[in-house]
Write a structure and sequence with these properties.
With 210 residues, this protein is of the alpha+beta class. It has one domain. Strands 1-3-2 form a three-stranded antiparallel sheet. A hairpin with a 5-residue loop joins strand 2 and strand 3. Helix 3 runs antiparallel to helix 4. The longest helix is centred in the C-terminal third of the chain and has 36 residues. The protein is rod-shaped.
């Protein structure tokens, strides 16, 4: 079973790496996960105290990172919801530590099964679901669109295979009814040869690169 990652928003943007050197200079432990309330709400008080000491520029960066975090999580959850039954690995995130010591998601990915089905009909249905999952977010990323394009090719291959099979099945009935010496038989064979020349030489394929 092959799989492809559907990524969100290109988390490596330089705009979201700014301040990294400043964050690295902060005390050990500042890069941990989001604060959770402990006894007496001390963690919340500590977070509030840290926010009070941030410069105006740092506060802006925290606001931007928080907004980015919301966008990334909504993006990945859209993939998961639309890809029900196809998801091979739930959402995983890439984080950046903000000036406030909190971690914010700046990128993510969801693993999705992209292998063909056991029949052309199953492959067609699956390709349509893969495409829907890839394009589910409000703003699909470049990789999302790449996955959708590959799913479209998979669907096209499946449709051609279905058409070829139906033509051959229909031709078999016509052949039985036609006489071998009649023009109907010769026309049918010519049509079959023409169709075979147009058909692709290989079955459905879909690459599985992350």
């Amino acid at each position: 079973m092959s799989a492809m990652s559907i990524s969100s928003l290109g988390g490596g943007d330089a705009a979201w790496r700014q301040g990294t050197a400043m964050n690295a200079a902060r005390p050990a432990g500042a890069s941990g996960g989001p604060a959770t309330a402990g006894a007496g709400g001390k963690a919340q008080e500590a977070g509030a105290g840290a926010a009070d000491t941030l410069s105006e520029a740092e506060q802006r960066q925290v606001a931007e990172l928080a907004e980015r975090d919301r966008e990334v999580r909504a993006h990945e959850m859209a993939h998961v919801a639309a890809g029900a039954g196809l998801v091979t690995r739930g959402a995983s995130y890439t984080y950046q530590t903000g000036p406030d010591g909190q971690r914010y998601a700046i990128g993510g990915e969801v693993g999705i099964d992209t292998s063909p089905g056991r029949s052309p009909e199953e492959s067609l249905s699956k390709a349509e679901r893969i495409r829907a999952a890839a394009l589910a977010p409000a703003e699909p990323s470049g990789q999302d669109r790449q996955v959708a394009a590959q799913a479209s090719r998979m669907a096209s291959d499946a449709r051609m295979e279905i058409a070829r099979r139906e033509f051959e099945q229909g031709g078999a009935g016509t052949e039985a009814a036609a006489t071998r010496d009649g023009p109907g038989y010769r026309g049918m064979r010519a049509a079959q040869a023409y169709s075979a020349a147009l058909a692709p030489g290989q079955g459905p394929t879909l690459s599985a690169t992350a």
